[in-house]
């Protein structure tokens, strides 16, 4: 028979199974062992829980079982519909209180909730607004009436417009709609990935005029750290393109200014909140750029990292993978640091796609070949067996952003997220929020909820949460002494959390 | 630093990566090798294609790339909306012509398209219909007006009713609606798994009165084989509970009668179509039954297998896993064959669920511990690393039924089907259709399309298709000599297919 298979396929695979027959009752002890071994393999499976932790763990499991029996299981529902359910969840409330370590995958343009942007930034004097032909908005702070631009002809002073319209709440809500993807009816508004990405990119452009105004930027960054700190996050690695910023009189600041502001705000914030460790920047360039532009961006990043070694930690390519250049397209630019003998760690987005076997899908392999320190999303990694092994052996953590992946329509029911496979294998992993403002989240608790309840299912336990939190420090770019400090700070918070909730 | 991690997690994982720095340009040859090695690992990756096959393979890849650029990518869309798109696909047309081997996971009650049931069976004389209070129907062939039943009070002769209504096409379409899940608007009709399963079970009950009528059953089985043969399938392993059947005069035939009919029809069919190898039965019991009832079913199956060794090949538990008994619940019944020293191979459904970590999710482990020969669906297998390894090492193939999994709402976009992970690892796998009548498919081509285009993506090639087809013989229950015959028959068909299409 074997010969026939070989003939048929021109390859030989031995067949063993039809020799055996129906087995008798499996040995319950052996069965237990098997299930235990699987449990040990998963993320956090080897974490030994204290008695107090075990108590909290049992409570979490009960709560999770209850949540699974509800009419709507939140992780199976689009986040925009599930958010209200999640907010009422006792598991979510516990996760909000839990010290979650660091947020390692957040984009600077979507760091702060849109409520703050509208209620604070747009209420400042000299804020102008302009409606574009494609139903978007632009903002600009200016001492005088701004000049018309190619995309925007008629600028109005927001203060005047708001007064004229007379319904500030309604008006402000409509402004928020321009700055976020959040909507009550995501399925009809965003029928596919193309539509949701179009709105996504529009919202970034709309926010830019507010965020790149120098005085707003300072407050924005402080506010961003505050939202994380309030969610019991203690550290941030922010992806940022370091835009140029502007003053009211039209003065333009170069990128370095934004870096200095970032440093200054972080220092002020950690002084105000000594339980917050700090924040650092991964410089991001758009994958829509050409090779020579990326080369320039890489060189600039090398220089900025030399000049700000405590703040600039590395480099990434950002933007929609399915429509941008692949890492391999950009290989000449990305090999520059090594060619120049420079230090520039990479933290590449890779595999944020549903497509299999095309050039974009190969980004996960190239990210690893370029020695990336972590993989942003790595949604495609699960079906790359070799890359998956490489990533695990080298301890290259996947930055899992469940809410983002669902909202950007990679997956609808989060129980089908491929990270379920990675978690079951104990693949190195951290949880992050990607673009909280765009998705209507704040901090990391929503993403922890989806990962813990939806992706991990009943198998994920308090050990999983603990490992995910510790991972966010372990896989951070922090130098050793700071890492030690971070662990110690986190450990203290964790013990307090446990004694408070067990 | 390591000490701190260990303190924090009470476990130790060494960290290696921060030693290395940004790599230079990856060696293109090494990169190619890596990608090649991944390609070799996938299902069919090691199949060596002839020149003619390579030509067809290149064409298939071109067609697939084109299909991926369309406004709607069929595997990402609910099958009920995608079916018309798929029917127009040149890939689908090729798959229809392709010799696909055997169908190893099909349920007898949903073997034949509902069009035949309505246009043929319900047009026979003496067919009565009754509408139930819960908007379902019952059929019954009877010489006289049937008695009212608990679920059905008023029986009408179908012929009379159809004439009275006057719109036979509209009426017949409404009958079909009762017998299939197919609908134009699946998202609103089936908002969740519970609703779709309820309709699913209703449709089975509705069809029963037709199919269990002895004269219909004979034609039904023949028609079922014909639909497979027309789709270039050459063998069938049918899951069947072997219902008792009835004659017009009320005579009831026991299960053995149905087995004999099955044997007789199969023999007649293979005489009429000598390119069709045959059909065999996996006896199925409902997981809604209690342990003692399952014990009786197992004993009965053992006896039937002794009496019909060429027809009865094994045993399975069927019905919705999420609401039925687990294999472990039924362990006393399932260990009976071994206890009695009997031969009764198992072909268990296991892991047809989205839930993780609950008792149902453990079915995949228990199926393997009970030495199952194949795993029906195995949707949950991908996140069971140990069970996955066991399954692969023992060559226990997963019976992948993509259309079924999508329609029964385990996954919406088939690119997210966990079998993508299994395929990337070359996990033993066959493709089947589960319940073609319920899903509006016929043969295996729709499921092959979804697996090849959606789950496999661009990575899946003609080698994948070839291995999947050969797998359906290799992992069948056929004894060695018949397997050899099957390979030879298939090989001849395959060569003809290739020479016709390359």
Word description of this protein:
2 copies of one chain form a homodimer. By secondary structure, chain A is α/β, with parallel strands linked by helices. Chain A contains 23 helices and 13 strands. Helices cover 49% and strands 12% of the residues of chain A. A 4-stranded parallel β-sheet of chain A has the order 1-5-8-9. In chain A, β10, α16 and β11 form a beta-alpha-beta unit. In chain A, α5 packs across α21 and α11 runs parallel beside α12. The N and C termini of chain A lie far apart (61 Å). About 2% of the residues of chain A have low confidence.
Provide keyphrases for this structure.
homodimer, 502 residues, alpha/beta, TIM Barrel, four-stranded parallel β-sheet, 23 helices
Brief summary of the model shown:
Chain A is α/β, with parallel strands linked by helices and 502 residues long. Helix content of chain A is 49%, strand content 12%.
Write down the CATH class of the largest domain in chain A: Alpha Beta
Compute the number of strand runs of chain A.
13
- Supply the number of helical segments of chain A: 23
* CATH fold naming of the largest domain in chain A: TIM Barrel
Helix content, binned percent of chain A: 40-55%
Through-space gap between termini of chain A: 61 Å
CATH architecture assignment name of the largest domain in chain A: Alpha-Beta Barrel
Bin the strand percentage of chain A. 5-15%
Most strands sheet of chain A: 4 strands, parallel
Identify the biggest protein-protein contact and residues per side.
A-B, 96 and 96 residues
């Amino acid at each position: 028979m074997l010969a026939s298979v070989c003939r048929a396929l021109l390859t030989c695979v031995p067949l063993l199974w039809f020799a055996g027959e129906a087995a008798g009752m499996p040995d319950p002890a052996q069965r237990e062992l098997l299930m235990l071994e699987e449990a040990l393999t998963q993320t956090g499976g080897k974490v030994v829980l204290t008695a107090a932790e075990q108590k909290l763990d049992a409570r979490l499991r009960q709560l999770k079982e209850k949540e699974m029996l509800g009419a709507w299981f939140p992780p199976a529902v689009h986040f925009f519909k599930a958010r209200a359910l999640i907010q009422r969840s006792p598991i979510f409330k516990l996760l909000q209180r839990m010290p979650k370590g660091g947020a390692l995958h957040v984009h600077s343009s979507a760091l702060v909730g849109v409520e703050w942007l509208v209620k604070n930034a747009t209420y400042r004097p000299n804020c102008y607004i302009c409606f574009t032909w494609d139903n978007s908005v632009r903002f600009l702070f200016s001492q005088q009436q701004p000049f018309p631009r190619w995309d925007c002809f008629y600028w109005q002073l927001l203060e005047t417009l708001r007064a004229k319209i007379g319904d500030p709440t309604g008006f402000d809500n409509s402004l928020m709609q321009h700055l976020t993807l959040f909507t009550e009816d995501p399925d009809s508004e965003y029928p596919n990935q193309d539509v949701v990405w179009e709105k996504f990119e529009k919202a970034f452009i709309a926010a830019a005029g507010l965020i790149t105004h120098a005085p707003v930027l300072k407050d924005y960054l402080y506010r961003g750290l505050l939202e994380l700190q309030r969610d019991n996050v203690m550290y941030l690695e922010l992806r940022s393109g370091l835009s140029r910023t502007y003053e009211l009189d039209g003065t333009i600041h170069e990128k370095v200014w934004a870096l200095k502001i970032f440093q200054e705000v972080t220092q002020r914030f950690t002084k105000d909140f000594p339980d917050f460790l700090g924040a650092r920047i991964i410089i991001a360039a758009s994958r829509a750029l050409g090779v020579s532009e990326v080369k320039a961006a890489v060189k600039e990043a090398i220089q900025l990292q030399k000049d700000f070694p405590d703040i600039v930690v590395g480099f990434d390519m950002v933007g929609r993978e399915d429509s941008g250049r692949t890492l391999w397209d950009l290989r000449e630019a990305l090999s520059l640091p090594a060619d120049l003998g420079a230090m520039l760690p990479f933290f590449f987005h890779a595999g944020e796609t549903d497509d299999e076997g095309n050039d974009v899908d190969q980004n996960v392999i190239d990210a690893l070949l370029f020695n990336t320190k972590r993989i942003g999303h790595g949604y495609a990694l699960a079906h790359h067996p070799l890359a998956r092994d490489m990533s695990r052996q080298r301890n290259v953590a996947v930055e899992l952003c469940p809410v983002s992946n669902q909202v950007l329509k990679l997956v609808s029911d989060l129980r089908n997220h491929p990270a379920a496979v990675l978690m079951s294998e104990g693949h190195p992993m951290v949880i992050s929020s990607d673009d909280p403002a765009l998705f209507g989240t704040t901090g990391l608790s929503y993403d922890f909820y989806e990962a813990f309840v939806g992706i991990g299912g009943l198998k994920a336990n308090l050990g999983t949460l603990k490992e995910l939190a510790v991972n966010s420090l372990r896989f951070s770019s922090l130098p050793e002494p700071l890492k030690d400090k971070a662990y110690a700070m986190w450990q203290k918070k964790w013990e307090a959390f446990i004694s408070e909730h067990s």
